[in-house]
Amino acid sequence: MSAPGVPELPAGTEVVELLEGLCTTRAIRRFTADPIPDDALAAMFFAATRAPTGSNRQPFRFVVLRDGPNAAEAKALLGTSFRARWGAKRAADGYDRGSGAAGRSPKARMAATMQRFVDRFEETPVVALACLTPWRGVDPTVGASLYPACQNLLLAARALGYGGVLTLWHAPVEAELRRLLAIPDEVLILATLALGRPEGHHGPVRRRPVPELVYDDGWAQPAPWAVEPEGTRHTGRPPR
User: Fold this and answer.
1) Domain coordinates of the chain in residue numbers?
2) Stated pTM of the model
3) Which of 35, 56, 118, 121 makes a 20 to 30 Å CA pair with 110?
4) Can you give the pLDDT at residue 93?
5) Contact at 8 Å (CB) between 60 and 145?
6) Alpha carbon distances (Å) from 75 to 65, 166, 188
7) Residues 191, 197, 199, 200: what is their CA dihedral angle, to the nearest 10 degrees?
């Protein structure tokens, strides 16, 4: 029995503790063809709408694309944009040079995952455009009233056995998306989220060591209390 205001978990859902979910929610880019049932989707977006916003205005909106009359065309537009953006990034960041030329290196595996993601984007079970209506002009802080909702959505997907990833690669086709989906000019489209059943799995994520990222009482001052759980693994990619 769920607490008041908390959706019932679909039958068979494995319960994920909050801290475990926070530390094991990976960016998922490989999906099965399974659709997301209505009850699971409703629970995800309910969790998303519980996120905090500036002055509790809740200025965000999600345009969800599944299999409706506009979805196929919108996903095709996004797929074209994503493939172009990834092609440019793949060349600029040298994904096919150095260790990227080794078939099973982390760099090569990431390139293969990204290529599959963009090549099959139109098959993504659910795509959500995260939108926001600014109430005090456009400034660098507007995302603070949207991105917590996006994170809530991804965490809820993780809790229900699904997964997703947030990107900004909709920008080249934003004008076409606005016309197709009747999104008003004053509304900002700040992110695209792809959602579905993972073909792989979630698990502990690799990040930089906590002492490199958390300071105490001043810039670059060590935080002796910021210790990591035993067995924590780190990414080999240095911060930019």
Assistant:
1) 29-198, 207-240
2) 0.90
3) 35
4) 92
5) yes
6) 8, 15, 19
7) 80
